[in-house]
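so the lab meeting is tmrw and i was supposed to have these ready like two days ago... anyway. pasting both below. for each one the top line is the aa sequence and the line under it is the structure tokens. i havent really looked at them closely yet so no promises
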Amino acid sequence: MTPTHLSGRPAIPSLPTVLDAFNIAPADAARKLLLDCLRSLRWADRVAAHRPYPDAPALLAACDEAAYDLTAGDLAEALAGETLPSLPDDAYGAAHMALGAAHAAYEAKFGHAFVICLDALHPDEALDHVLAEIRSRLTNDPEDERVVAADELRDLAKGRLLNLLRNAVPGAGPGTGPMAGPIPGPCVGP
């Protein structure tokens, strides 16, 4: 007996999603995409190895969990691949100097680039936020700053992955697009 909702018509197969493509991609391709999000080989290997993911929230949760397991060496590897967030093109010269000086002091103290997730900040607020955060975090001791930097890297990785998946489909945005399940808002990073 044919279900009434099919009315004798053939079923139309669903189109593959970006998440489907990620799930079935060769391991090297998946790792490469993941390394664009967080430059830790161990993290990328772990997230790629646990495919397939049923939906975007499961993928993001796995990314988060794998990032919590980063060793000090893994964290150093990931931080070595980071750069200072870029300023808007119309930022005035003094802002570039202030940010450059603050970053130099940060890097001299901690030995790695300053990382920060600019989640949901309006672009006009980003410069002031970055300058305030870098100055504030300069007061941290190295162990406390390692914890803060690891948190920021986790947020950046999830946001970057989400942006890569969304940008693979024109017009896909928050809460839309081909990935199943609710998708949290993006985290904008360098």
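ok protien two:
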Amino acid sequence: MKKWLQKTLIVAVAFLTLGAISPNHQFWTSLQEKDQAKQAEQPPKITDYSIGLTDTYVYDQLEEQAISEEESLIASAKELSYAKFGTKIGPVIADEFDEVIFPKIEEAIYMTFESTGNLHKRRLAITEKPAGDYAEKIFNVYDVADGKDVIRFHVRTEKRPQDGYFYNFHYHTAEDSFVAHHSIGDIYWSKNTPPKWLS
């Protein structure tokens, strides 16, 4: 058998079985032409392979899809946060945001995923545009099926007498109709008035 055809078959078998079956070299030598010396030296051996699929494969795929949705949401959350900060605020608070605030945002998103249950049945997405000016909204996580918000992330600019300006990061959940204020943390700006968001 020609080498290129043999190699093509090996690749096809590996691809179709997702690498679960490795080609037996004895099988390939039996396909070689009869005038080759290897054919005369070794009698062909046939090995029977079987593969069993269970429901865990489907479950694993659904779990991987849910994990990839979570990771996509987390990446979008960070991207939207920095979009809200803009080029004036972002570089100043980036380090503290990455070390202190964002891990807590990430934790809140994961808790939201866990509390929604049936991850493979419910899809969550993130809003695409943070609010500018001095508005609080960073982003909202919502259920794609009904379009209702599940959790809202905000940052408020606070002026504290004698101390200056702080950014207060917090979130609201649908469980209490977005009434409760769940604090994530504060980042100090300075005593000077901070620029507007998205600037």
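from a quick look at the 2nd one: The chain has two domains: 3-33, 56-188. The helical segments are 3-16, 25-30, 37-41, 55-116. will dig more after coffe
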